[in-house]
histidine kinase (Qipengyuania psychrotolerans), 583 residues
Amino acid sequence: MHFDDRLATVLRNRAGGERAARTQFRQLIDLLGERPQAGDRALKAAAYLRLIALGEMIPVKDRTKIVGESGWRFRNPELVKWFGEAHPHIAAAALHRAQLTAQEWEDIIPKLPIRTRGFLRHRRDLPPEAERVLDALGVSDRALPEPEPFDLVEEIAPADPQSAEPAETEAAPFEEPAPLNLSPLPIEPLAAPQPPTAESGNDGIRALVDRIEAFQRNRSERILDSENPRLPLGEKVDTAPAKPLDEFLFGSDSDGRIDWAEAEIAPMVMGIDLAQAADDSETATRAIRTRQPLAALAAKLRGAERIEGDWVVDAAPRFTRSEGRFYGYVGRFRRAVSGIEDRREAEADRLRQLLHELRTPVNAMQGYAEIIQQQMIGPVPHEYRAIAATIAGDAAHILAGFDELDRLARLETGALDLEPGDADFAAIARKQVAQIQPVLSPRVARFDADLGEGRAPIALSQAEAERLAWRLIATIAGTLAAGEAVSLKMQTGGDQVEFALTLPASLNAAEDVFSVETHASTGALSAGIFGAGFSLRLARAEARAAGGELARIANALVLSLPLLTGAEALPSPQGQPDSAAGR
């Protein structure tokens, strides 16, 4: 039996930061944008609720850019309707990418908000059925209609109909041009135009001319938006430092010359020849000539400081629908990274894909085992229920290991940010050590803890800080031998807190403590299915993501984390009065 659990997999992960929120936002609209299929309605409703929550974390401008990316093809009428009720900029970008059938357009257009229907008039590829629905609803282009001559006559006409005859009023501006005074006028400060009067047709035309000149002057002085870039001619230029540019989208003509790019990048890259910019120009020229995709093409850009340097180009050819004629490329420029970082990112991506494939059968086994154990399809003997419960527990254990592997891969490649907050690491460590001491007592093992009574606030959420502390303390406690004791010390120095744990004998003998395969000696405390070395490596990745470090110093592991500004200092250990400094 085959089933698609991609949506459930995405919803299972929590977006801890803005970068993770953008990634999950893309994943959800990619999955929801496919053709509507049978599935769990509650799961789809949860996906839309997650999109709303992610929208509060991502600015409107960034969401508009994400929805407007060239790779999307929204084929789900439900998602198109949901986007149509969003911010106008987002709705315009989504409707530009929507690809629905004629029947779907007929059904969805009347359900769209009135302001959203107008965006469809800018598309020239809608089916005739959709055009007829728009015409029936009275949706037209937003361009202003050309004024009729009678409109001008009414605007110049006198406010009081008794002050002049109607025939004379209509004839004055057109049939009697002689009264127009074309002599040079004295230069005077510009004043607000006065409403025309009926005393003279000349005054009415002069007022109309003033209004036209004022409109043109205001139009020429306004600041153009990002969709109409031009050179700054006498205007104030923003001298604030630009943000570093990691990637940008582009489009090219049939010769491989860039003719479109994101608004803020367009002036810097317009006209660049992809073949000449590529490191291997012959390969790029051959690919463009044969209309082949450009995959991981190394290129070097010169010019503005923001685009200077090495890049990697990924682009796909574009063809017209009617004739199949090639008319250019559309793709993305991304900053080139070192070979080691590139290989590490590729390996992490392959690992995440493998874990996604492995989760599917494990989830299925866990679901079937729970059905049998809970007797949801009928009575089951107790022996089989016990076996099913064991299988469900093992599946949960395996899924927990998959989550740890995925977390480590994302942390080491910078794809995951820890949730920020304000947690007291000292209080967390004291609480967890007190919880573990009774578990170690039957083996006559113990922690000699010297954690003080002060606070150590760090920039992590309570959950993230508890997870990091427990991973360290439980891993060390699980490798303690009978009768063994290790010391724990915590102190602050400058602007950071240091948490030192003496290594047990089983870990102290290892050459690399982050790669040992030592497992817990008791079932009550577990370092995970991959052993103590993996758990410590994951703790080190979490510490680095929080701006700190976990390192082995002699026979101890030392965790260093930055303190929040204004944190209270911990009491100095006895005999070292000057070792702690609070801020």
